[in-house]
Amino acid sequence: MRQQRERAKKRREAEERRRDPDGLTKAERRARDAAAELRRAREAARAAAVGRRDTWVGAVQEALETMQTLGPGLPDASVRALAARGCRTAADVSMTSEGLLAATSVAATKWADDQASLGDAATKIQARQRGNSERARVLARLAELGLSRNGSKEAQPQPKPKPKPKPKTEPLVPRLAPRWTSTVRITVRGITGGTTVLELPSDTRVRSLKAQLCAKRGGKPLLIRLACGDVPLDDREQTVADYGLEGDVELDLAPQTAELEERRSVDAGMPVLRAALNAAAASRMRAAVERCGTTHMKLRNPNGSHKHYRWVWLTVAQDEDSPPTLLVHWGKNRDRSDHWLWKRMGSAPPKQRTVTAVDSSMACWNFIAHPLGLTLESAERDVKFVVPGPYDDRQ
Predict the structure, then answer these.
(1) What pLDDT, on the 0 to 100 scale, is given for residue 31?
(2) 20: helix, strand or coil
(3) H or E segment and range at residue 352
(4) Which one of 250, 365, 366, 371 is most buried, counting C-beta atoms within 10 A?
(5) What is the pTM of this model?
(6) Beta strands 183-189; 248-255: pairing state
(7) Over the range 237-255, which residues count as b (16 or more CB within 10 Å of their CB) and which as e?
């Protein structure tokens, strides 16, 4: 019976191979399709892992470049030069540096286009003038003969009827509510005891305040210094509201030189500009690291050997007076909460490091670069991660 079953199986397999174009049985075809499906799944998982690794590397590089261009990487000499130009926000800096370069290039391109257009227009005007001169001579000869253009007697021109006046209608423009600004009553006391009263909106800049004060009592704005108690109003780009002046305010006036006024204004504007640049850098860095999310990665030892799997994410830390820093965290929980440590029999927060650089390559313990690895250089030590791929993902 067993031999009969084996012979029947062989005949059935031979019949299946004869009917199949590739010469395979049904079982062999199913095994081949399953192997191809597994290979496609591995390739897709590997491509997704490479995409996640590239996303992490690109986000970290963008955040670090932002720190160099706007954050703590910007030297004080550059901040002083920007503050001397009147920059107090990141938008002012972009208008001063990138905006001026872009405007210069656009203006140069427009000037070249305008020159080409003027050349074409000059050629057309010359041709038109030559045609108009010939036409004027012909019309003058016809006028002498009393003929029109078609050779008939010229008729007397009829006066054009006056157009009827259109009724005046008010345009349908929505009435916008005026922007509300409070009014500050400022009393300036001079050296001799004389006082000058000004009523200005709270969004008035200090430079405008000095200009209006000098227009009312004489003098030059660069040669006076205003102070509210112990707080001097040195930054001429700040507004009255920025200094917290509201209601009835008394200011003291003191003389100063123009050079001293310039230096004091720049010194007072540097912290304001630095804080604005740090805030703008932190905002751009957060937008960059949000693309990474929370990723399950394999943590490696400094020599590249396997350590353990952890959930990894990036954050941006910034206080009011400190520049932004890029931090990398890893822990056991995906929700970024504290995890349990059996060795200590208690919970512990996720670990973190300050990121200073990123490298898309990573050498393992056998000195072979891992295709899915990345190295984060930190202020404490190097941290190496591997994005889980088809061969590294733990099921």
Answers:
(1) 85
(2) coil
(3) strand 351-359
(4) 371
(5) 0.65
(6) parallel
(7) bbbbebbebeeebebebee
